[in-house]
Amino acid sequence: MNEWAILSKAMIRERKDIILSILGGFIAGLAGVALFAASGYLISQSVFAPPLYTLIVLTSLVKLLGILRAASRYGERLYSHRATFSMLSRLRTSFFAKLIPLSPGIWNKNRSGDLLARIVGDVESLQHYFLRVAYPPVIVVTVFLATMLFTASFSLWIACLLVLGMLATTWIVPGIALLVRRKMQGRVRQQRALLSTELTEVLYGFRDLKVYGQLSRREQQLQQASVALAADQQRAAGQLLLGQSMHAFITFLVSWGVLALGAYLIMDGALAGVFLAMLVMATLTVFEEATAMATLPAYKQDSEYAAQRLTETVLDSAIPSLNPSCLLSADLAVSIDLSGVSFQHEGERRLAIKDFTLQIPSGSKTAIVGPSGSGKSTLIELLLKLRTPTAGEMRLNGVPVREIEETSIWAATNVVFQQSHFFRGTIRDNLLLNEKENSDEQLLDILAKVQLPNTSLTDAVYEKGENLSDGEKQRLAMARAMLRRGRLWLLDEPTSSLDYVTEQRVLKHLYEQAAEDTLLLICHRLTGLEVMDRIVVMEQGKVVETGSYSELMEQKGYFYHMKQIELQLIGEGGEQWHSQ
């Protein structure tokens, strides 16, 4: 799919309003030409003192044409803008619909500020495509052809002059403007995206930049980006003005040509003098309809470049889809079967997961442990269809994951990520993220289970949970998951920021709720894993050991040595605490 397909499909869906706007524009343009032509003829006739009824008819015609022009212009503006805003709404909705399933992989290719610029600025730029690119040529051609036929009935020479002038304004002026703007193609949009990116990073990293004394340097970079954007915008505006100036020059040149040619034809007896003012006025008016052609190349380039950036954003991050049709039941505990699964991040040499094979029966409790970077979190993202495996097959309840709709997987899963997002609002707002309504008593009960008994549902939560500690964020994320009714639990370091006592209390309530469900726990701490049915030890994306807690301790392998190191560190920490 290319940028032309995006814009064409959007226009086809609004074809009714587009046809009405074109009809209104044609009537308005033709009425404008007729209005000024009639005005010129009225002025010329009044010199010869015609009968009163002639002046009454001409005056009435001018008034009627004025009303017709205003009414049709209103209709043209109404339908063209309604079509434009409808197309913009459809494009924005369509882009968001394609963008959401691509997370989190899209963050690997686009910086957040640039992505924001594409979502807002580039989509907004597409509103000019119909109004400034597709619509003007249709109106110019139709109105000009009608005017040319009208003019040819009085003089073929003047009609030929109008043809030459129209060719100049519709081809030569836009061509020159296109050549001038070729060097500027996309530069304003790139500079705006760069400024948005730098500004976003400064806002996100303001605290660290200030503490490490780098804020002034980044402020200078922002200032330079702002100055560059202003300079490019000024050059782009100058190029638009150049096209408009050239159009105005040709318009007056043709008008003077019509005046001079008309005078010659009158002297030669080939044209009645009473029609000269009418033809000059008609010429001025018809070229006004072609004014938009001078800026058409600029808007065409901007619209196509914006559509290209949006297309690249979606296609470069697209996940191959096989149109899955199966649904994962949210009422049954889920069995997981991974066979030879491998995954490699784009641009990286090493595999994050290598030939991973694991069977997890429904209703079982499995812990995955291992050092950082061993691929544990990536495994959860693969199960949720947030990423696509490079090789191998994954099955949930015996059905290949690629054939299951991701929305049904999400609905059947209670997930806690390492980093959970919190929205600006209240505790209640950040708990009620599921479709089912919960009473305040249920919410307070869940908060008590995750060891937040003194938290009010109306307590404020800042953007990204900035007013919450890491432990509070994790407990709130656990409460959010426990409010759901899925039968598959995917927990990625859910209690890493909690002290041991609080961790055990929270996990006790969670295990009670998930007693009959399938639970997959990723953790670094090895304490409390005795309750797990199986423990899987990973290193560098591979399974190095698997078994129950007692089996692994008896083997005295990788897990046993990890446990001894942990016990040694806990012992040393305890001794240091007692000595203090």
Automatic annotation (TrEMBL):
Q: Which SUPFAM superfamilies does UniProt cross-reference here?
A: ABC transporter transmembrane region, P-loop containing nucleoside triphosphate hydrolases
What sections of the sequence does the record tag as coiled-coil? none
Question: Which UniProt keywords are listed?
Answer: ATP-binding, Membrane, Nucleotide-binding, Transmembrane, Transmembrane helix
TM region(s), chain numbering: 18-42, 48-68, 129-150, 156-180, 248-267
- Give a single Pfam family match: ABC_membrane
Q: Which InterPro entries match?
A: AAA+_ATPase, ABC1_TM_dom, ABC1_TM_sf, ABC_CydC/D, ABC_transporter-like_ATP-bd, P-loop_NTPase, Type_1_exporter
Question: Where's it found, cell-wise?
Answer: Cell membrane
Per UniProt, residues of the ABC transporter domain are: 336-565
Which CDD domains did the record assign? ABC_6TM_CydC (cd18585), ABCC_MRP_Like (cd03228)
Q: Which PROSITE patterns match?
A: ABC_TM1F, ABC_TRANSPORTER_2
Give residue ranges for domain ABC transmembrane type-1: 19-288
Annotated membrane topology is: Multi-pass membrane protein
Indicate what this protein is called per its UniProt record: Thiol reductant ABC exporter subunit CydC
Q: Which organism is it from?
A: Cohnella boryungensis
In the UniProt record, what gene is named as encoding this protein? Answer: cydC
